[in-house]
Structures are given as structure tokens and as C-alpha cells.
UniProtKB/TrEMBL annotation:
EC class: oxidoreductase
Keyword Iron: yes
Alphabetical list of Pfam families matching this protein: DAO (PF01266), Rieske (PF00355)
Entry EC number(s): 1.4.3.-
The organism of origin for this protein: Methanobrevibacter curvatus
Name of the protein this chain belongs to: Gamma-glutamylputrescine oxidoreductase
Keyword set, alphabetical order: 2Fe-2S, Disulfide bond, Iron, Iron-sulfur, Metal-binding, Oxidoreductase
Location of region: Disordered: 230-264
Gene Ontology MF annotations: 2 iron, 2 sulfur cluster binding; metal ion binding; oxidoreductase activity
Length: 566
């Protein structure tokens, strides 16, 4: 296996070495004011800020809090991002961008204030943040200068410099934000979680939500059979069409919605009754506004390693080619955390190739004493680069998603915005994050999105404007399942059509075979194999399944069906 020859250390996130507190599974029935589904930076922040306002809350996490998305991030804290403000001024105008700026300044400051109030030990440090391009061509330099012009208009402190610290001292020009921050994301989340638990508020781990009821109506799931049997297959052109049907995300009944209705979030062994429900999974498991149609799925590959020589504690972002670098203390000394190789979920090549490329970047930047960890992370990018935070079209249901790889600050903003909305407090910016904005007929026209959508034909198997067609270029047609599996080499996967069904097959190192449905249980998109992590991934909306079929990441809530040879 290629991973063995790369010598990258432990195949898990560096952050997961932190051993935080464990929380009980949800068992029995509980009553709170607000139930929050998802225990990452957004869900835990929302729970913390709501409890600070006097609400009783429950956070329900399907795995361990903070471990899947937040725990695989690079955890930089900044009100600056990748050339965002010049884009916003151009597409949305000054007033909108000023509100956006205020939100991200508030989120940045809220993290610092919360750490101080709750006395959280999370390796929080103030550091400068350098934004630049390693491609020192005139166009990229002009983009950086344009961003500075936008920052000046918005009164955001930043400056241009040619004096860029190692290991990026070969870049010609950088935009510098002083006094940005970094921390250990799991230490921070567990500090917040320690505050949430108690006095009628709860955190539940290993508690997989499988049903949501509103005023007696089951709104999640609506009809699992529609999702499992919604495809017709054509063996000749290997295409599949999604049969149009009403799915669980379209059952709004908005005229009957009532903020005072009883809402129940259920797991296998328990339930929570609440007045409000917040969906804070990376992609919403309940999505009445079909936000998933405006997401682009993106992945990155990350290495942590010990430099031979100490480096200046600084955050770096190269806009082209994209990569980020930061440092964190560890038991072995200064740990460098390098993120690179952004790419869509696709079947184009081995995931090990991406890790190899990140390793080459690291070794070209500095002398490496030892590679310690390697892992993959991902986030949703939204079409307009604005997150979805706020109340959905179903009253009393809120969502926080689409963080555009800017999760620490945006997850915190989610806590601020949703707490204000539930508390009926005014702020200056909640409206710009509305999950319902794409329902406005003039929205795309007014901001001229038609020419600026962040979509790629390599990224999804069906266009954002036509979710009914999926072209499965990597699917083989088999006539004899048993014979083909017998001839399959160990540690090999196949996505096949057999007897008019798509199957996902993996044969492990011991010749054990796992045969699964090859379509995601969310919206029936066919799956791609990730050979490094040994998982099946959905390129459409980001669901992830183990090779045994267990759902690991939303929006899917059902495992893949298993099949067995006679």
C-alpha cells in the first residue's frame, strides 16, 4: 500500500491526540428549550451562547463532539479570508459587506471573550496572518492589491509587505493581518462543553438522530423507500436517472407551522422534546429549503510534522496554489500543520497521490524532522460564498451550514446569530446569512451570480441546475457477481451494475468482501471510493460511509444496505 511507503505517521488528525471527556448516549426522554443536532464548533457554540442567555439546551452528536469536521480542520481564527472582501464589495455592495465584516469581527472577538470568561486552556495565541500567492505573476499580485483596497474601504486593519517570513519568503508580496489567532479546536470545544452540561442542559454522544417530529408530523425521514429505489439504470450508457419524488426535505407544510408546536428529536434509545430545533450538522440532515442544491463539496489533505528548526509562529495562506500553514505546541515540540490539495470528491485518482503532493510541499518549504499525522478534511462551499445561518422556512427550525472552509469563526458566528434569533434580539447582520435567500426570485439576478457560481464540472456528477442526471463514468457492468468477486484482488474496490442495481464492493486485505448499495441514502447519488481512508463518499452532498456501510457523515442518516453472496 502506498501509504506505508510515504511514512507520514499516524493516520488520524493531530487534534485527536487530545483525550477529552466522554458523554453518555441519549437514553430516555428529556425536555429542553432548544435541541441542537451536531456537536462541532457550530453546535457547541450555539449551545453555549444559548445557555448563557438562560435557555436549557441539549446537544446531540452522532459520534464524539468535535471530532469529524472541526477535529479535522486546521483551526485558524481570522476575520480575513481568501480575498473575500473584494469579492463581496463587487457582488453585494458596501452595506452588505459592512454587515459581513461586523459579523466576522464579532465572531473573532467572541472566541477570545469566551475563552477568558470560561477560563479555557486551549493553546490560544495571537499571531499574524499572511495572505499571498506563490505564483508571483502580475494577475495574482493585482488581486492582492485589490483586496487591500477593499479592506481600506471597510476600515479593516491590514497592510502589504514584501518581507514575508520563512518558509514563504520567496513570495513577492503578501497581505498581512496582525493580531489574528489560533487554538486547539478540541480543547476549545471541550471547554465549551464543560459549561453546557448541567442544570437542565445536556450533551449526548454516540446518539444518531433518525427521526424528527413536529407537532405530531414526522418530517425526518419522509419516505426512505423513495431514496433507496429512486434510480433507473441503463447498462449501455451506464447512466442513472433520479426519479422525481417528494423527499424528506420537501415536506414543509409551512402554513401549519407553529413556533409553539412540540418538536421531538429521536434516536434509537431516546428522545428530546423542545420548542426549537437547530440543525448544525456539516450538511443539514433536515433541509426544508434544499440548501444542498447550493453546496459544492470540497476536500483537503493535511499533514502535521516537526520542523528541524524552530519557525516563527505565524499563519500563512497561499491563494494560488492554495495551501495553509500554521503551528501548534505539542509534546514533541513545535508542530507544523500544512493543509493543501483542495479538490472535489471524485474518482479521478488515488487519494494517496494527494498526500504525496502535500508531503512534497512540506519538504520543499523546510527541513522536516519527522512526519507525525496525516488526515483529510472537508467543508461545504456555497455558491455565493456566504454561509447559511438562521431560521428555515419551517418555523422553529434553524440551520448552520456552508462555512466555506472558514469554520472556527463562522461556527462561532452561528452561535451569535441563532442565539439572537431565538432570543428575539436584534443584530446588524442576521439577514445576510438567511437560509431562505435563494428563494427570492431576484437574488441571483441582483448579485449577478450567473457568471460567478463556484461550480466545476469535475466536482459534481450533475449540474447544480439539474439534479436529475448522474453520469457514472467509473461504473462497470458485471454479469457474474460471484466470479468477478473471486477474481478481485485484495484491497480493491469496484462500483458496479449487477442485475439492474448499483453495488459498491470492497475486498479487504484478508479477502473478506463487503457488498453494499452503491447509492447514497440521502438523494441516491452514486458513491466514490476513497482508497486512503477506505470510505465511500458522495460527490453530490458530502455524505460518507465506512466500507462496512455505516454512515459516518451527514446529510445521510441511513446506513447503506448490505448484500451477501448465496
Amino acid at each position: 500500500m502506498l501509504g506505508d511507503t510515504l511514512d507520514l505517521g499516524d493516520h488520524k488528525s493531530f487534534w485527536l491526540d487530545f483525550d477529552g471527556r466522554n458523554y453518555d448516549k441519549l437514553k430516555g426522554s428529556f425536555n429542553v428549550d432548544v435541541v441542537i443536532v451536531g456537536g462541532g464548533i457550530a453546535g457547541i457554540s450555539i449551545g453555549t451562547f444559548l445557555k448563557m442567555e438562560g435557555f436549557k439546551v441539549a446537544v446531540v452528536e452522532s459520534k464524539k463532539i468535535g471530532q469529524y469536521i472541526t477535529g479535522t480542520s486546521s483551526a485558524k481564527i481570522s476575520y480575513g479570508s481568501n480575498l473575500i472582501y473584494s469579492y463581496l464589495l463587487n457582488k453585494f455592495g458596501f452595506d452588505f459587506t459592512l454587515k459581513f465584516k461586523q459579523a466576522y469581527f464579532d465572531g473573532f472577538n467572541k472566541i477570545k471573550d469566551t475563552i477568558e470568561i470560561l477560563n479555557i486552556d486551549c493553546d490560544y495565541k495571537i499571531v499574524p496572518f499572511y495572505l499571498f500567492s506563490m505564483e508571483n505573476d502580475e494577475n495574482n499580485l493585482k488581486l492582492i492589491e485589490k483586496e487591500l483596497d477593499a479592506l481600506k474601504k471597510l476600515n479593516i486593519p491590514a497592510k502589504l509587505t514584501k518581507d514575508i517570513p520563512q518558509p514563504y519568503n520567496k513570495a513577492n508580496l503578501a497581505l498581512v493581518y496582525d493580531n489574528q489567532a489560533e487554538f486547539h479546536p478540541l480543547k476549545y470545544i471541550h471547554g465549551l462543553a464543560n459549561y453546557i452540561g448541567g442544570n437542565g442542559s445536556y450533551i449526548f454522544e454516540n446518539s444518531h438522530v433518525n427521526m424528527i417530529v413536529d407537532n405530531g408530523d414526522v418530517i425526518l425521514p419522509n419516505n426512505k423507500d423513495n431514496l433507496n429505489n429512486g434510480l433507473n439504470f441503463d447498462k449501455n450508457n451506464k447512466s442513472c436517472k433520479n426519479n422525481k419524488s417528494n423527499n424528506n426535505n420537501n415536506n414543509n407544510n409551512n402554513n401549519n407551522n407553529n413556533n409553539n408546536s412540540t418538536k421531538v428529536v429521536k434516536t434509537k434509545n431516546g428522545e428530546i422534546n423542545a420548542k426549537y430545533v437547530v440543525i448544525a450538522t456539516n450538511t443539514p440532515i433536515y433541509d426544508p429549503d434544499r440548501l444542498y442544491e447550493h453546496f459544492i463539496q470540497n476536500k483537503s489533505h493535511i499533514l502535521s510534522f516537526i520542523p528541524k528548526k524552530p519557525m516563527l509562529n505565524t499563519m500563512f495562506v497561499s491563494s494560488s496554489p492554495f495551501s495553509t500553514l500554521r503551528y501548534n505546541p505539542s509534546k514533541k515540540g513545535q508542530m507544523a500543520i500544512l493543509l493543501s490539495q483542495h479538490h472535489p470528491i471524485q474518482a479521478s485518482k488515488s487519494q494517496w497521490d494527494y498526500y504525496r503532493q502535500v508531503k512534497e510541499i512540506a519538504e520543499n518549504l523546510m527541513e522536516v524532522k519527522s512526519f507525525e499525522n496525516y488526515w483529510t478534511g472537508g467543508d461545504n462551499l456555497t455558491e455565493d460564498r456566504i454561509p447559511f445561518i438562521g431560521e428555515t422556512s419551517r418555523k422553529g427550525f434553524y440551520v448552520a451550514s456552508g462555512f466555506n472552509s472558514w469554520g472556527m469563526n463562522t461556527g462561532t458566528i452561528s452561535g451569535i446569530v441563532i442565539t439572537n434569533l431565538i432570543s428575539n434580539k436584534d443584530d446588524n447582520y442576521s439577514e445576510i446569512f438567511s437560509p431562505q435567500r435563494f428563494k427570492k426570485s431576484d437574488y441571483e439576478k441582483n448579485i449577478k451570480l450567473k457568471n460567478t457560481k463556484l461550480k466545476s464540472t469535475e466536482q459534481v456528477n450533475h449540474d447544480l441546475n439539474d439534479r436529475n442526471e448522474i453520469i457514472a463514468d467509473n461504473i462497470e457492468v458485471w454479469d457474474n457477481l460471484e466470479e468477478n468477486i473471486l477474481n478481485l484482488e485484495n484491497e480493491t474496490e469496484k462500483l458496479i451494475i449487477f442485475e439492474n442495481k448499483i453495488l459498491a464492493i470492497y475486498k479487504d486485505e484478508n479477502s473478506k468482501v463487503f457488498i453494499l448499495d452503491g447509492r447514497c441514502t440521502h438523494q441516491s447519488c452514486h458513491l466514490y471510493w476513497n482508497d486512503a481512508e477506505k470510505i465511500w463518499e458522495c460527490p453530490c452532498h458530502g455524505s460518507i460511509f465506512s466500507y462496512k456501510g455505516e454512515v459516518l457523515k451527514a446529510p445521510a442518516i441511513f446506513n447503506l444496505n448490505q448484500h451477501y453472496l448465496d
